[in-house]
Design a protein that fits this description.
There is one protein chain. With about 475 residues, the chain is α+β, with helices and mostly antiparallel strands. The protein folds into two domains: about 100 residues, Nucleic acid-binding proteins (OB fold (Dihydrolipoamide Acetyltransferase, E2P)); about 325 residues, Bira Bifunctional Protein, Domain 2 (BirA Bifunctional Protein, domain 2, 2-Layer Sandwich), CATH 3.30.930. The protein is built from 14 helices and 16 strands. It has an eight-stranded mixed beta sheet. A five-stranded mixed beta barrel has the order 1-2-3-5-4. A three-stranded antiparallel beta sheet has the order 7-9-8, with no helix packed on it. The protein is elongated, with a radius of gyration of 27 Å. The structure holds 4-amino-1,4-dioxobutan-2-aminium adenosine-5'-monophosphate and magnesium ion. Magnesium ion binds next to strand 15. This is Asparagine--tRNA ligase. It is an enzyme of class 6 (ligase). Homodimer. InterPro entries: Aa-tRNA-synt_II, aa-tRNA-synth_II, aa-tRNA-synth_II/BPL/LPL, Asn-tRNA-ligase, Asp/Asn-tRNA-synth_IIb, NA-bd_OB-fold, NA-bd_OB_tRNA.
Length: about 475
């Protein structure tokens, strides 16, 4: 008997069809008249399959006591039209098999809702809850949409290295990778001899695949990376992870406005795809997580993003009359309170800020003629803040070398990167979207720890 998943059964199964369903019990209710109702979930959709088991089903009296919340079962039966509300069909069991029991005395998930804080402690079982099942499906839908968006535009999917020796963002937030025995080194209190180490020099986990993506963009054309990214930022916020997933498209011959157009189309496409492909899950988020999420997404997908220079944004923030905790001056890195004011209170829609001060942005961004700003762009969205960071890249060798020096970096470490400007340099641009921030925007989940299966944050790397 081929196994049919619950989502397919609920939409396609016809009365009197014989089918098998397998999954995990959400609840069981015994009626006085000698039969039981089981709500079965297999993660394929938000809804449960209602199963009716008569007492005359073989093994009923032995098995039914083990059909408790969390147990896994296999049921064969006949599809019937359901007299109940809110469900088209139900399954009348002809056989019931308990595959794995779940002791009700210790199984931590119960029918009642649990707090996200509690569920974070049981990251291995939380995907069995409605919220985390829905997050997993929407996250998957976003990943599919990301690949589709670029693949249909002819972009090449590129795998950039996880282990690297260059610090793309120049922020010193790298996790070092070493086989050196740190404990022994500490005891002897010697200097670390990186030449003796595996790679012969200090190596780290990547903070961005951008620099490597530039090498392919300037040879095979439009490309994108999509992979895990690591940042040793000690920021305990609801928007930062030490390990997150980033999508980074890189395009030759693109200037900053082209980059902005692509970023805007990209975000709108992802939203459209999730609304079309996950309507039930989105309805759940709108009812149970954030009652404004569908309205916010509708607004984002149908309106043009505001485009504003950093300097204009600073003028606006200074003159708006609002008292910010962190005062605004030209040259500061905008804080989350400033981003929220722009996107939630003032414009009430996404804002693309561009032309940031050179001093707060990495070495690779193209310098403007004003000698103060670079061709950077950040896409800010309501509730989440910065969802995309990107720029036009500096393609002029002399200017790039001067910036590398200015940032206190060693040009020798970037010989291969500067070669791209030595040989056939072209204007080019790209950006990075944090997958988890996109999941936060779309689901309305407030804490980034709840939109990645196994969050890594300071002090937390369990399971
Ligand atoms: O602005 P960022 O640092 O830009 C880059 O890394 C560029 N190299 C991208 C490029 O141009 N190819 O990071 C890009 C995005 C941010 O806008 C944010 O969405 C996400 O990555 N991000 C994080 N997400 C979760 N936790 C963190 N610690 C993050 N840091 C950045
Ligand atoms: Mg950024």
């Amino acid at each position: 008997m081929p196994l049919t998943r619950v989502a397919t059964l609920l939409s396609d199964a016809r009365p009197d069809e014989t089918v098998t369903a397998k999954g995990w019990v959400r609840t069981r209710r015994d009626s006085k008249n000698g039969f039981s109702f089981i709500e079965l979930n297999d993660g394929s959709c938000m809804k449960n399959l209602q199963i009716v088991v008569d007492a005359d089903v073989p093994g009923y009296s032995d098995s039914i006591k083990n059909v408790t919340t969390g147990a896994s079962i296999a049921v064969e039966g006949t599809v019937k039209e359901s007299p109940g509300k809110g469900q088209r069909i139900e399954l009348h069991a002809t056989s019931l098999n308990v595959l794995g029991t779940a002791d009700p005395a210790t199984f931590p998930l119960q029918k009642k809702g649990h707090s996200f804080e509690f569920l974070r402690e049981i990251a291995h079982l939380r995907p069995r809850s409605n919220s985390f099942g829905a997050v997993a499906r929407v996250r998957n839908c976003i990943s599919r949409s990301i690949h589709n968006f670029f693949q249909t535009r002819g972009f090449l999917y590129l795998n950039t290295p996880i282990i690297t020796t260059s610090d793309c963002e120049g922020a010193g937030e790298m996790f070092q990778v070493t086989t050196l025995d740190m404990a022994k080194l500490a005891q002897r209190q010697t200097e670390i001899d990186w030449k003796q180490d595996f790679f012969g020099k200090p190596a780290s986990l990547t903070v961005s695949g951008q620099l490597e993506a530039e090498t392919y963009a300037t040879s095979v054309g439009d490309c994108y990376t999509f992979g895990p990214t690591f940042r040793a930022e000690n920021s305990n916020t609801t928007r930062h992870l030490a390990e997150f997933w980033m999508v980074e498209p890189e395009m030759p011959f693109y200037e900053l406005p082209d980059n902005m157009d692509l970023a805007e189309a990209f975000i709108k496409t992802i939203i459209n795809d999730v609304l079309a492909q996950c309507p039930e899950d989105m309805e759940f988020f709108n009812q149970r997580i954030d009652k404004t999420v569908l309205e916010t997404l509708e607004n984002i997908r149908t309106n043009e993003f505001v485009r504003l220079s950093y300097t204009e944004a600073v003028d606006l923030l200074k003159s708006c009359g609002k008292k910010f905790e962190y005062p605004v001056e030209w040259g500061i890195d905008l804080q989350s309170e400033h981003e929220r004011f722009l996107t939630e209170e003032h414009f009430k829609q996404p804002v693309i800020l561009f032309d940031y001060p050179r001093t707060i942005k990495p070495f690779y961004m193209r310098c403007n003629d004003d000698d103060k700003t670079v061709r950077a762009m950040d896409v800010l969205v309501p509730r989440v803040g910065e969802i995309i960071g990107g720029s036009q890249r500096e393609e002029r060798l002399d200017v790039l070398l001067a910036r590398i020096e200015e940032c206190g970096m060693n040009p020798d470490d970037y010989w291969w990167y500067t070669d791209l400007r030595r040989y056939g340099t072209v204007p080019h641009s790209g950006f990075g979207l944090g997958l988890e921030r996109a999941v936060q925007l779309i689901t309305g989940m407030t804490n980034i720890r709840d939109v990645i299966p196994f969050p890594r944050t300071p002090g937390h790397a369990e399971f």
